[in-house]
Amino acid sequence: MAKVGPRKLAAVCYDHIGGALGESLYDVVVRKGWLRADSGELRVTVKGRRELAALGVSVDQLDSGARKPVNACVERHAGMFYAHIGSHLGSLLAAALVERGWLERSGREFHVTPSGRRGLHRLGVRLRMASTLRR
C-alpha cells in the first residue's frame, strides 16, 4: 500500500483553490449565506454576489459563457472527501485572491501571503497548516 502524504494547505485544482484552504473557504461562504443549495444546485445569493464583488471577484462574469457558474468540486485525500468551490466561481475567486495579493501561485500550490493570512482570518477562514504560508 502506498504511503499517503499530508494534505496540502492550498492546492491548485484545475484553476481553483483546493486543499484545506479550499475546503475552509467553501465552509465559510456557505455558513455566511453567500452560496445556497437550490434544487440540488449551488447558487450564489444576492448577498454572496455583493460580498464576493467586495473581495474583487468579477461576479458579473458568472452568468456569461459556457461554464457552470458554481459547483462543489470534491477532492479525495486519504480516503476522505472534501468539498471546495469549483467551476467559474472557483476560478474567479482564485484569480481575485491572487490579484489582491492574498495568494501566490507556485506550480500546483497556492501560498498564503501575510496579508492573505490576515484577510482570510477576517473572513473566518482558519489556517491550520503552516507549510505553505509565506512569512
Strand content: 25-35%
Order of neighbouring strands in the sheet with most strands? 1-2
Overall 3D shape: globular
Helix amount: 25-40%
- Arithmetic mean pLDDT: 88
Number of DSSP helical runs: 4
Topology as a string of helices (H) and strands (E) = EEHEEHEEHEEH
Would you identify the regions where 5 or more consecutive residues have pLDDT less than 50? 129-133
Structural class by SSE content: alpha+beta
Q: Roughly how many Å apart are the termini? A: 36 Å
Q: What radius of gyration results from the CA coordinates?
A: 14 Å
Domain module tally: 1
Question: Can you describe this structure?
Answer:
- The protein is α+β, with helices and mostly antiparallel strands.
- It has one domain.
- Helices cover 33% and strands 25% of the residues.
- The protein contains 4 helices and 8 strands.
- It has helices at 19-31, 46-54, 87-99, 114-123, and strands spanning 12-13, 16-17, 35-38, 41-44, 71-77, 80-86, 103-106, 109-112.
- It has a two-stranded antiparallel sheet.
- A hairpin with a 2-residue loop joins strand 3 and strand 4.
- It is globular, with a radius of gyration of 14 Å.
- The termini are far apart.
- The model is unreliable at 129-133 (pLDDT under 50).
What are its keywords?
25% strand; two-stranded antiparallel ribbon; 135 residues; alpha+beta; 8 strands; two-stranded antiparallel sheet; disordered C terminus; single chain
